[in-house]
Design a protein that fits this description.
This protein is α/β, with parallel strands linked by helices. The chain has helices spanning 7-30, 69-77, 91-100, 104-107, 124-130, 175-187, 222-245, 277-280, 313-320, 349-354, 409-423, 457-460, 470-484, 488-501, 506-519, 525-540, 547-557, 561-570, 577-588, 604-617, 622-638, 645-659, 662-665, 667-676; strands spanning 44-50, 79-80, 84-85, 134-138, 156-158, 195-201, 250-256, 281-282, 284-290, 293-295, 308-309, 343-347, 359-363, 368-371, 383-387, 396-401. Bound molecules: zinc ion. Zinc ion binds at residues 51-52, 91, 258-259.
Length: 691
């Protein structure tokens, strides 16, 4: 829960923020000014992402259709691409294809972890910033939190705090807060420059928890709740688009979704592990907005009903602005005739997290051609996985609705060529240092750089296919969600079942250990068992994210303090420094294990300083900041003369001053609300974070 800010504190903070703005803002805005100007008639640009939005929730009249009057009006008057493809059904890699025009293999980025997006490629934000745009982002969901790499090129990047590594639920803020923040950016000064805004709505992502007035039908049914989220985002989008219309500027609006949502189609509830239409077919819209007018951008006024990919957004947007497309871009400008018959799709999450096969393929008009590993069932609940190669060793399959005939050999040859070209697109070298990157994401994958490369088809064909393991994925995700809700006891049984079938299932080993540590069973038996799971996991994958710190914790809970410290130090090879410092700090602050065995290395001063170091490295850890505040307050009561205390308190104050920074970007909103409420300075938040 977020603490409410009392009036005096808020007022002082507000004053401080206003003063800071007055001093700092002009300099901030000037920082990127002075680059080569654009053509005089280039518009301002806004990129809107509605995360987890299925195509058929906003188009057509099928059973998933939601009420979206604002989107309907925009799509009617702008240029929509009704056969757009998300190359990868995961948030960070998919947004990265939009921002760079490159495919996941070129970016060596196939899952929400590891991150960040590599720094050696230009993005829409870096290019437009260089051209003198004032760049700012409002992010709704934690997979795109600052640190993911997309923030490069943004002068302001307003994102929710990062949640725990390995958690199934993400930190997010709701659509009303996102729109409010975006309106604040619109009203703030841009120093006479054009703007580039990125606005990210995360509400349609699980859990589906819309305001009740947006739910039609059964408020307990996941599909109706999902459609309620879509309707709610549409309502908030309308508020944002109204502000664009009254801004007296001309806007290029690019709207897309990074992936869809399974909602039960072919046995998939959410997204990430499969490449079915439900998750890779997404809405895509380009529109020019000026006052009350909405029209297709020049060059996109009319066109064929071609199949496009989200990597085409980058070059198309640049072309709309009259800017050159950088070398190394895979996507093609949609102002030109169609360059390809298919769009690349992949899911490597099952490989990275479970050791199953990689899924790579191309989505075409009639079917999706995939290489998906061994033991693919022929019938995937109404979708057929048809072998076509005539070679029993091959893992090539066509995903087709039952009635669709297989294409002829000439068509297949084109698809195969396009898949080969996408897999081998230049730039796919894994950048140095990627193994040290930190983890966010629900099922953090391995950071072994070797595993970030695509497997040859022959090797992939020997691994079990995620297409045949949809129930296991579902079971695992449900167990992790229980764990994140604090229901550790309930999570153990399904994890036991998964591991009884497949003792080497890495993600299940990690999360069963989490559950056992959370249960704190009498006699430390849970911690011993958790230690066994984690040791087994590290034998399978020595770099599995999150495993080493948890093992250090398990050792500490069973009185093995020397082993705990040693494992914490070893975590430096696989975890971010902030995580390691926090771990060491909490170990030094533990006087004894639950059975009363003393910790020979307990050291309050050292522990406090390690926690402070962790906070300095990652100030977004608000729970840790509270813990340290309490720790120092207690030390001040019990041992006020301690020599280290004053320096530690000063260090904490410095960190807290840094953490006040986001107020600057939200200052205009705070001022407005403060005035509107006659000085009642409790800021209204949307629904609280769902994590
Ligand atoms: Zn997403």
């Amino acid at each position: 829960m977020r603490r409410r800010v009392g009036v005096p504190t808020a007022f002082v903070a507000l004053l401080a923020a206003v003063l800071l703005i007055a001093l700092v803002a002009p300099r901030l805005w000037r920082r990127h000014a002075g680059a080569a100007p654009l053509a005089g008639d280039a518009p301002d640009v806004v990129l809107v992402s509605i995360d987890t939005l299925r195509f058929d929730a906003v188009r057509g009249d099928g059973p998933m259709r939601a009420a979206t009057p604002a989107l309907d009006a925009l799509m009617k008057s702008g240029r929509t691409f009704d056969r757009a493809t998300a190359h990868v059904p995961l948030t960070l890699p998919s947004h990265s294809t939009v921002f760079t025009g490159r495919l996941p293999p070129q970016l060596a980025l196939h899952d929400n972890a590891p991150f960040p997006l590599r720094r050696d490629v230009p993005t829409l934000a870096t290019l437009l910033s260089e051209r003198g745009y004032a760049t700012a982002a409002v992010v709704g969901g934690q997979p795109l939190a600052e640190g993911c790499g997309l923030e490069r090129g943004f002068e302001r990047y307003d994102s929710p705090p990062r949640g725990r590594a390995g958690a199934a639920a993400f930190g997010e803020r709701d659509a009303m807060s996102v729109t409010d923040a975006a309106l604040g950016l619109l009203k703030g000064a841009a120093g006479g420059r054009r703007r580039f805004l990125f606005v990210h709505y995360f509400d349609c992502h699980q859990p589906y928890d819309p305001p009740p007035e947006f739910v039609r039908g059964d408020p307990t049914a996941p599909i109706d709740r999902y459609r309620g989220e879509v309707a709610y985002v549409d309502h908030e989008l309308a508020r944002f688009v109204d502000a664009l219309r009254t801004s007296k500027r001309r806007w290029l609006l690019v709207l897309f979704s990074d992936h869809g949502e399974g909602l039960g189609d072919h046995g998939e509830e959410t997204h990430g592990y499969q490449v079915f239409e439900s998750t890779v077919h997404v809405p895509l819209l380009f529109a020019e907005i000026e006052g009350e007018a909405t029209r297709p951008p020049a060059g996109l006024a009319a066109g064929d009903d071609r199949l496009v990919g989200l990597s085409d957004v980058f070059p198309t947007t640049l072309r709309c602005l009259g800017l050159p497309v950088p070398d190394g871009t895979f996507g093609t400008p949609l102002q030109e005739p169609a360059a390809r018959a298919t769009a690349y799709v992949e899911s490597l999450a099952g490989n990275l997290q479970f050791g199953w096969a990689q899924v790579t393929g191309v989505r075409a008009a009639q079917a999706t051609l995939v290489h998906a590993g061994a033991a693919v069932p022929d019938d995937l609940d109404g979708l057929f996985a048809r072998p076509i190669a005539g070679d029993p060793e091959s893992d090539e399959r066509l995903l087709v609705p039952a009635a669709t005939p297989a294409p002829d050999e000439g068509v297949l040859a084109t698809w195969r060529d396009e898949l080969a070209a996408a897999r081998a697109a230049p730039g796919g070298d894994v950048p140095e240092g990627i193994s040290k990157l930190s983890a966010i994401g629900y099922l953090a994958g391995s950071r072994d750089p070797q595993r970030l490369r695509l497997l040859p088809f022959e090797a992939n064909a020997e691994l079990p296919s995620p297409l045949g393991r949809r129930d296991e994925v579902k079971e695992l995700i449900a167990a992790i969600a229980q764990l994140d809700r604090g229901e550790a006891m309930a999570a153990v049984a399904p994890l036991d079942r998964i591991l009884a079938r497949d003792p080497g299932q890495r993600a299940a080993l990690l999360h069963r250990a989490r559950a056992r540590l959370a249960l704190r069973s009498p006699g430390g038996m849970g911690a011993v068992a958790a230690g066994n799971d984690l040791e087994a996991l590290l034998r399978l994958d020595p770099l599995y994210p999150g495993a080493r710190p948890l093992l250090a914790k398990a050792y500490g809970l069973t009185g093995r303090f020397q082993d705990a410290f040693a494992m914490a130090e070893l975590s430096r090879e696989s975890e971010p420094e902030a995580v390691v410092e926090r771990l060491l700090g909490s170990l030094h602050l533990t006087p004894a294990d639950p059975a009363g065995r003393a910790n020979p290395r307990a050291d309050r001063e050292r522990g406090a300083n390690e926690l402070l170091r962790s906070l300095e490295l990652d100030p977004s850890q608000s729970d840790l900041a509270r813990d340290v505040e309490q720790l120092l307050a207690k030390a001040a009561r019990t041992d006020p003369a301690a020599a280290w205390l004053a320096a530690a308190q000063e260090r904490l104050r410095r960190i807290q001053r840094r953490r006040y920074r986001p107020l600057r970007s939200a200052y205009s909103k705070t001022v407005r609300r403060f005035r509107a409420r006659g000085g009642a300075a409790t800021r209204r938040h949307g629904r609280s974070s769902r994590v």
